[in-house]
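The protein record quoted in full:
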Amino acid sequence: MTLYDLLAAFRNVRWHQLLGKRRLLAGEPLVRERGLVGGVRYWDAQCDDARLTLATARDAMRHGAQVATWTRVTALAKADGRVAGAHLEDALTGAIGTVTAAVTVNATGPWGDQLRRLEDPATQPLLRPTKGVHVLVRRDRLGHEDAITLTSPIDGRVMFVLPWGDFSYIGTTDTDTTESPDEVAATADDIVYLLRSANSAFPNARLGEADVLATWAGLRPLVAPEAAMRASSVSREHLIVEGSGGMLTIAGGKLTTYRVMAAEVVDAVMQRLEAQGYPRVGRPPTDQTPLPGGEAADLEPLGSPGLELGLPIDTVNHLVRLYGTECAAIFNLVEKDRTLLQPLDPRHPAIQAEVLHVVRRELACRVEDVLVRRLHLYYEVPDHGAAAAATVAALMGRELGWDLEHSAREAERYRAGLSRS
């Protein structure tokens, strides 16, 4: 742990602390006592991955980028055998178009090899995708205050039990898979593995499948190693390669290194542009520039306007935690229309004003955008947001010009998707 702190170059929140058995159990009484000698408390960070990705895209828009959601690449545009852009299709309307580019970057994660084959059908795979699964349970089933690092007795892998409001995330798995990134999902074996691993650290919890409120799965776009090794041993380092048609592909890496990866990609793009006669531009200070919503280090004062509007403390805390400084925009919506302070679901702190906010500012186009990736009711209420779907669709319809039939169809589409998940 001393090495961990040193690698942080003294920029971590605090230096690690050694905890004796008695002190550890005082803070985490449900942790397995048998064989326990003590522990270490160290500081790290957690984030909402969907919101981090969204904030990054919005910050790019603020600096002039054109961002399109629900848009697929159907083919690469080529000129003299070189990649010169992409042919696109709007998945919502069916509209098609072409974007031209002096340099084309493939930053599609686990879809990377799929796009590379559009450049060169004979190209060899670059990736070794591994599957990561999490399960969500009620936090009171485990009774923990802090994040817990544990080792699975099944295969010796390091895992985490992470607090997130009233819930706990347990994960993750790390297994090879041939599943498509469009269809990857948690299997029964994945769930059993995670629950058995958590139960080894929290034996009195006796977690079972009935405790699982939600699951999610994704693929890590790891660079395939030359030698054979277990999935969890594959390097998380990233790599930039140029294809036969000149397309740059960024592969590997982790969410925590995304900004460094992006900076290296931009440097590679600038080298190509300069070779084509474009003027050099300076590197932007993205390592010092806060993303939208992250402009204030102290979040506590941000909730005061919400309390003055009469919003419940749980809702205010939810808005501050989810939107940071941008919660002010939601308070303004409520101030103008008090009906928007109504909850979307009585079991969740999200309110109707948030739907308008995420449509206007956060590129939400479908009900699932709101309930799954923006407000997370899909994970945090027992019916996964089914009861809220009609209200969400109606509010979205007001903003997007949907008629009643379209709104009803969008709500039904969401509920039908739940039955298949």
